[in-house]
Amino acid sequence: MQPTPFKLERYFAQHEFTARHLLCSSDPESMSIGELLAFEPGSIDALRETWLGYTEYPGAPALRRALATLYENVQADEIIVHTGAQEAIYSFMHSMLAPGDHMIVHMPGYQSHYSVAEAMGVKVSPWKAREEAGWALDPDELETLLTPATRALVICAPHNPTGYLPTREVFDAIVAFARKHNLWLFSDEVYRGLEYDIADRLPAACDVYERAISLGALSKTHGLAGLRLGWIATRSAAVLERMSTFKDYLTISNSAPSEYLSTIAVRHTEALIARNTNIARGNLSLLDEFFARHANRFEWHRPRAGTIGFVRLKQGHAEQFCAELLERTGVLLLPSSLVDHGDAHFRLGFGRRNMPEALAIVDAYLDATVTSTAS
């Protein structure tokens, strides 16, 4: 199997650690090991005593017990811990789909949601978010995308890259469609918890549907991408068996220090969520003002959750705009061509404390461009 090159990751490999200012990062503000350990006095001694042998294949029991508290109807033995969300996505596609199958995927989206399956010989139909409706999904369209070979529906909520969050009515309609047609519902929930209004938080798909697979990770909601820890939660015995068996050909087991630190992080999920949503809310206020000032240049649909948004350029091409911005200011944005969505949008990240500094640089650049054009 040879998947299509992961365009977004190739772009970051080139620019992420050389650009002076990142304004497109999907993950929120992170922290040091010391800051994380400070949540639990005495934990540094336990870290020193962490055994550096193999860990249990599905994840350390203490970690899985902590993760189970994030769900209503899932137990610790219904969770498989992976090395990041990417490994879990790859494992699900290879475990539960086969060449000739068909699946429906929420688009625009994260490339591995569809490229891995396509490389396997799975047919993919995009379920397109409607920009004119604030990137909303229309569940009535799902029946038109169904084929006799459809085996899975892949969604992302809260959504990357738009920040869209379905209403409970839309979410229930998605689950009802999957149940009616006996589909696997793979629900990418890595931003779940970062809703700006907690009343908007949806249930985990695995809690409401027996053939759902909920994907979680510490990179987004918790802001701990360096721990490289993700997981799936499901009540399906078939998924648990097949994905466990497939993981034997991937990482087998996870990093023991990472699992120990991750257990602390999950036990303090609410504190980390509060930290990251506070940063996002403050930055969103600045973005609202910024896009109001530059309404002639950009179209902005305010996200309802997460730490990223998807912005339309009213004139010009995103690749050119992003390249020139990077060259002249050192600020990195992500053009929409890298998420297979034309060349009119760019992804903006606002989960980090230094966003105001980067945004001020863009603001000055745009003002200078207007002045230069006018003269």
From TrEMBL:
Residues 48-350 form the Aminotransferase class I/classII large domain. GO terms for molecular function: pyridoxal phosphate binding; transaminase activity. Pfam families: Aminotran_1_2. It comes from the Bacteria. Transmembrane segments: none annotated. The keyword Secreted does not apply. This is Aminotransferase class I and II. It comes from Caballeronia insecticola.
